[in-house]
Amino acid sequence: MKISINWLKDYVDLDNNYKILEDKFNLMSQEVESLTKLVNATNLVIGHVVTCEKHPEADKLQITTVNIGEDSLSQIICGAPNVAKGQKVIVAKVGSVLPGDFKIKKAKIRGVESYGMICSLAELGVQDFDSEEDGIYVLGEDAVPGNCPLEYLSLDDYVLDLDLTANRPDLLSMEGVAYDTACMLDKDLNLLKHKYETNKDKNDLKVFTDTSNCDAYYGQIIEKIVVKESPYWLKARLLASGVRPINNVVDITNYVMLEFGQPLHAFDYDKFKSDTVMVRRANKDEILITLDKRERKLVDSDIVITDGNKVVALAGVMGGLETEVSKNTKTIILEAASFNPVSIRKTSKRFDLKSESSTRFEKGIDPNKIKKALDYATELFIKLADGEVKGQYTFFDNTNKAVNLVRLSLKKINRVTGMDFDTETVEKILDRLRFDYKVKSDDTFKIEVPSRRQNVYGYQDIIEEIVRIHGYDKIPLSLSSTPTPGYLTAKQKLRRTIKNYFMNQGFDEMVTYSLVGEEQVTQFDIEELSKVEIMNPINRARRTLRHSIIPSLIQVLSYNKKRKLEDISLFEIGRKYTNEVEPELLSGLMHGMFASSLWQGKKEVVDFYLLKGILEGLLEKLHIEKYEVVKTSHNLNSMHPGIHADLIIAGQYAGFLGKLHPELEKKNNLNKTYVFELDFDLIAKTTIYALEMKEIPKYPEINRDLAVILSKDIEAKELINVVKVAGKKQLKKVEIFDIYEGENIDSDKKSVALSLKFQSLEKTLETEEVEKAIARILKQLDSKLNAKLR
What average pLDDT does this structure show over 379-407? Predict the structure, then answer.
């Protein structure tokens, strides 16, 4: 928000030391981006061109004699096509410095000396000041030679540029800034009052609404207006505020919007061709050509202004080209209204039409400023456009103008702030804020928050206002009365352990977007889950909250493969989202070469068993022993049906691992990509109970190997379970270390080699005891699986 200091002086008596004002804003209100002169030029005077003759050595140059004050004449050579005798002009004397550090020096041009420069507005850095400028800028006849041209043009101003935060919509108006300035400086506030007269003709305008998204609409007809250039003071203030002057009609609506924060719009009444204004929702695919001459296809969430039938404006965002004010406009409909902020924000974002008006409507306007802004604009149309007001305005107004009542005790203020305010100090601050209040005998304040402060809702906001006006620099420095050392929760420790494990294995940690495309949401769902879609997505590819992290990891892999990076292992700990829960997941992806040694000629390519081994290593590190990797019982279309397994922890489904489906790989230009996704919350719950102390065995272990022949259809899980049950407590570990099919083995059979580890915590096992255990195992294998010793 750019603030004209001259404009601000209408409200508050300011000293010329504007650095104090800058410091106050930085400390007590909003950060100041810059404080600069509107026109950064020095040593300028108004000049009167006494003579103007053609340069003898140049067709396009003129030799002028200019009176620069007190009959002091200066010879200046000028190349502007419009320079002429008798003009009042802007002169940069020798020694002047213009924008861009351009210094004016005595010069000799084609043999003739020149002592200065006759300037255009563009050379002063304000080329938007007058749309009709062509060459040097010619001042009015009332300009006095020798005086400052910047003062004459009202360009002798400073601009305070505030970096506004979203919680201060009140500072989007000069009046709001004035309230804050008077409060911070503890000065009087001069609020402007406006009056105007109407003619006795009846105002035939009728206004209606067919949508709850329009709370108020005021329409005023103003006749006999003359469209022309705005006065210097008005154009200068618009320029200082970052708004380009156009003509007096448009400039008045912009000026009043900047003054009060209430957007206005003027329609050409003769082009409107109706005495009815109807506010409604747009019909789907309805068309409007806006002022920027672009055709807009509307949707039913847009608010539109119509002539009772046809759309003439996109409410709160931009007017329509068909009813645009032109030089020939004689009668206007002046609009002041209140629209739903959410609807305006959606429309503005969809069309990428961010305007000064939409910005203010999006943040919420003060309902008590609607009529005030209309009255002031009407007064200016009478003064600056020679308009006549036709009767009283027509309106409907359903806005809530009631003040917000907040009760707050002195005790709570001191408890929340940790400071020692007294009643008198708080009263003075509330007076400076211009909040009406009453104080009860128990030092409880009943505060009326004015509607201009839309950002102040409850006691927390009041306390914040009290502290900032009192001064953030006055908050005492203190240490916590009960210092305690920081610590990690059990989940935080687990998260750190898992991250360190995967990074030590050569994985890279990812942090991907939680938002994905609609197609990717359900790719790895094993059951039907509810979708969470955001109302205002960045784009279609980021509109739904994910159910799985794997699609995002696939995108990362595809991105890197396009840049010739093939050997990639990724992992991420993050959440998935449904309407009911937001569980945490541990997901990963492996592709290409996992490890290699060129010197030794060793290569370890990623496959299912490598991924399975890495996950088993993680479970071992987390002391989780009760787990199984089993053939999947879920039909996941995104996974390879033959290379896909489930992980079961303590009898509960914990996730899956395996290879991506070939079709999904082809779609993403991948090959041999392996993924996993586990329930982090289940792992956390299990590992907490798994962390228990165990006695170190005192007695040696005995190892035995067995090879049995059994049917191909028997799964490894079933074989190991039978061996474990038969081996009883003395059998501590069973591992499969070889599977053979081929010569000397029937085609429907396979040979499986097992490694068995026996150990007792009570004694050294005898050979006879181990042999009995092996015989018992072989008997059970023969009985239950028809497996024979090879």
Answer: 92
The answer for residues whose C-beta is within 8 angstroms of residue 151's C-beta and 6 or more apart is none
Q: How far apart are CA 381 and CA 684, in angstroms?
A: 71
Nearest-angstrom CA–CA distance, 185 and 23? 11
Q: Which of 175, 366, 168 is nearest to 262 (CA)?
A: 366
pLDDT at 493 over 70: yes
CATH level 2 (architecture), domain 404-473? 2-Layer Sandwich (3.30)
Q: List the CATH code of the domain at 44-152.
A: 2.40.50.140
DSSP 8-state symbol, 282: P
Cα 4 to Cα 20: distance, rounded to the nearest angstrom: 16
224 Cβ contact partners less than 8 Å away, ≥ 6 residues apart: 330, 331, 386, 387, 388
**SS3 assignment, position 437:** strand
Q: Where in the chain is the domain with CATH 3.50.40.10?
A: 198-397
CATH code reported for the domain at 2-38+158-185 = 3.30.56.10
C-beta separation of 781 from 722 below 8 A: yes
Q: What is the pLDDT of residues 614-639, one digit of tens each?
A: 999 999 999 888 888 998 988 899 99
CB 658 within 8 A of CB 631: no
Quote the tokens at residue 455: 């950002």
C-alpha–C-alpha distance, residues 528 and 523, integer Å: 11
Average pLDDT, the chain: 91
Q: What stretch(es) of the chain map to CATH 3.30.56.10?
A: 2-38+158-185, 404-473
When pLDDT is cut at 50, 70 and 90, the band that residue 697 belongs to is confident
CA distance 611 to 505: 11
Name the DSSP letter for residue 695: P
185-235 tens-digit pLDDT: 999 999 988 788 888 788 889 999 999 999 999 999 999 999 999 999 999
Closest CA to 363 of 342, 336, 337: 342
Q: Residue 772: enclosing H or E segment and its boundaries?
A: helix 767-785
Amino acid occupying residue 607? D
pLDDT (tens digit per residue) in 558-569: 999 998 898 999
Residue 242 φ/ψ region, left for φ over 0, alpha for ψ in the -120 to 50 degree band, beta for the rest: left
Given its phi and psi angles, is residue 272 left (phi above 0), alpha (psi -120 to 50 degrees) or beta? alpha
Instruction: State both tokens at 313.
Output: 């404006």
Query: What per-residue string of b and e applies to 81-99 under the rule 16 or more CB within 10 Å gives b?
Result: eebeeebbbbbbbbebebe
Using the structure block, give the residue that is written with the tokens 């050294």: 764
